[in-house]
Every structure is written in structure tokens, then in C-alpha cells.
Specification:
The chain is mostly helical. The chain folds into 2 domains: about 1-35, no CATH class; about 35-135. The chain has helices spanning about 1-5, 10-30, 40-50, 55-80, 90-105, 110-135. Helix 3 runs antiparallel to helix 6 (about 110-135), helix 4 (about 55-80) packs across helix 5 (about 90-105) and helix 5 packs across helix 6. The longest helix is centred in the middle third of the chain and has 26 residues, at about 55-80. It is globular. The model has no long low-confidence stretch (mean pLDDT about 80).
Length: about 140
């Protein structure tokens, strides 16, 4: 926008950039549709967290990682409380649930700590909606 304001871009170039941005947004919105059943946005966030490990993608495949993502949403709905981010005991229980879930699905142990950290970060951003529904 600064380039446009400084007359370094024409209106046509700005429109072309906006079209490209719209295409990227549309592609991102439909990314979960390739799974069966399709992943919802929350599930897709957890899928991205567990798919960061290339060895997990190679060994388990996308379908197993999608199942893990669905199960993580279930764990979050079950275990998230309003104060979970400040209470260490609740956070530890949630971390333990995540680790058990990854182990039960055979998630490679080499990057489990990083996956657990990413999943907890995703939960911190998503969980307030679920906690609000429980009250």
C-alpha cells in the first residue's frame, strides 16, 4: 500500500496483487477438504502442528495425522477449563493427555516435545472459545 500511495504501483498492479491474495485465502480455506472426512479449521490447526515433523508424515501418513488432529480437538473440548493457562496442575494434565494420545497413535518420539509445545500453543489460541461454551 505504501508503494501505491507513493505512486510506485499502478491501480492495476494493486488489483492484481489483491486477486492473488484472494486466491491464496481461498486455497487456505479449502485445504481441509482433501481429507475424508474434511478437517475443520481447529482440526487443521492441530494437523499443522503434528505435521511439522517430517518423519511423522513419512511414517504415519496424512490420514493418521488427521485422526490425531481430530482426537486433539476432542481432548481440548474435554479437558480445557477457563483457567487452564494459569493453573500448572491443569496444564500438566493436558500435556499428559496430549503425550498419551501421540504415543497411542505411534507418533515418532524424536519430535514429540516440539509437537506437544506446538499443540499447546494452538490450544492457547483456540481454547477460549471452548471454555466459554462450558460456562
Amino acid at each position: 500500500m505504501n508503494k501505491y500511495t507513493n505512486q510506485q504501483l499502478t491501480s492495476a498492479e494493486v488489483v492484481a496483487e489483491l486477486i492473488e491474495l484472494a486466491k491464496e485465502v481461498a486455497a487456505e480455506a479449502s485445504r481441509g477438504a482433501r481429507f475424508s472426512p474434511p478437517l475443520k479449521s481447529d482440526e487443521l490447526a492441530f494437523y499443522d502442528a503434528v505435521a511439522q515433523n517430517e518423519s511423522a508424515v513419512a511414517e504415519q501418513g496424512e490420514d493418521v495425522l488427521a485422526k490425531i488432529a481430530r482426537d486433539l480437538v476432542t481432548v481440548m473440548r474435554r479437558d480445557v477449563r477457563t483457567d487452564w493457562t494459569v493453573r500448572d496442575d491443569v496444564r500438566a494434565k493436558l500435556r499428559s493427555s496430549i503425550k498419551r494420545l501421540l504415543v497411542s497413535h505411534g507418533y515418532p518420539p524424536d519430535k514429540q516435545p516440539a509437537a506437544i509445545k506446538l499443540v499447546l500453543e494452538q490450544m492457547e489460541s483456540i481454547a477460549p472459545r471452548y471454555a466459554a461454551d462450558r460456562t
